[in-house]
Amino acid sequence: MPLETEKPTDTSIFYTLKSSDRKIFIGFECENKDDEEFVKDDIFKYRDLQLGVTYLLKPSEKVLSFVTLATGSIDLKDLKLDLPVSERPTKMPAILIGRLATTKDQYRRGHGSKMIALAVKLALEMSEKIGARVLLVHARNDPKIIAFYVKNGFEPCYSQRVGRDVIPMYLDLLA
Ligand SMILES: CC(C)(COP(=O)(O)OP(=O)(O)OC[C@H]1O[C@@H](n2cnc3c(N)ncnc32)[C@H](O)[C@@H]1OP(=O)(O)O)[C@@H](O)C(=O)NCCC(=O)NCCS
Questions:
Q1: Rounded alpha-carbon distances, angstroms, from residue 115 to 13, 88, 112, 155, 162
Q2: Domains (ranges, CATH) in the chain?
Q3: What are phi and psi of 166, to 5 degrees?
């Protein structure tokens, strides 16, 4: 998959968001207020403050889907992982999917899954240089969202509880 960092007017499929791309989300329809506020402003601040880097699926003028990545960690006890080491870390190093959304009129066409595939590819590349064992997401506790992540190879962490707003889910990068 080519990763382009050229101007947003080019025809690249994947594009790394820059802080100068203020108008790029015009026409992007969010499902919830949280994401709406994020793409309006915070997405650029996250970039500037090194809190998260966003990748866009943008085959033409319109952004179809985006994913924001950062580093994170998860308690080892929450994962079904056998670690044959004598010093077991309490926290497992992770690459975190901070946000992921597809514009509303483009749901269920595989765009979100493409962003997961990109996140996996980047996480594998990063983990060659700096240890990261899992791709982690705090998924909204909604059957459609959980189904989306399960379809893309994630499983819920042990710490999931009925009634929680979010369910941590992970994909083992070595599996
Ligand atoms: C989750 C999200 C990114 C999926 O994007 P997408 O481009 O539709 O993803 P894909 O087309 O690759 O996968 C769709 C899968 O998600 C699940 N899904 C999504 N919407 C669904 C719906 N309305 N009903 C049932 N399943 C649904 C299904 O598993 C579906 O697979 P299927 O179409 O083969 O049945 C999108 O729904 C979204 O932006 N939601 C709002 C933001 C959000 O909640 N993000 C996740 C936060 S953790």
A1: 11, 32, 5, 17, 28
A2: 3-172 (3.40.630.30)
A3: -130, 150
Q: How confident is the model at residue 5 (pLDDT cuts 50, 70, 90)?
A: very low
99 beta partners: 68
How many whole angstroms from 148 Cα to the centroid of ligand 1?
Answer: 5
**How far apart are alpha carbons 166 and 39 in whole angstroms?**
20
- Judge if pTM exceeds 0.85: yes
Write the pLDDT tens digit of every residue in 22-64. Answer: 899 999 999 999 999 999 999 999 999 999 999 999 988 899 9
Give the C-alpha separation, 140 to 159, whole Å.
14
- Give me ligand 1 centre to Cα 159, in Å: 23
Quick one: which atom of ligand 1 is closest to the CA of 101?
Answer: 39
Distance 16 CA to ligand 1 centre (A): 22
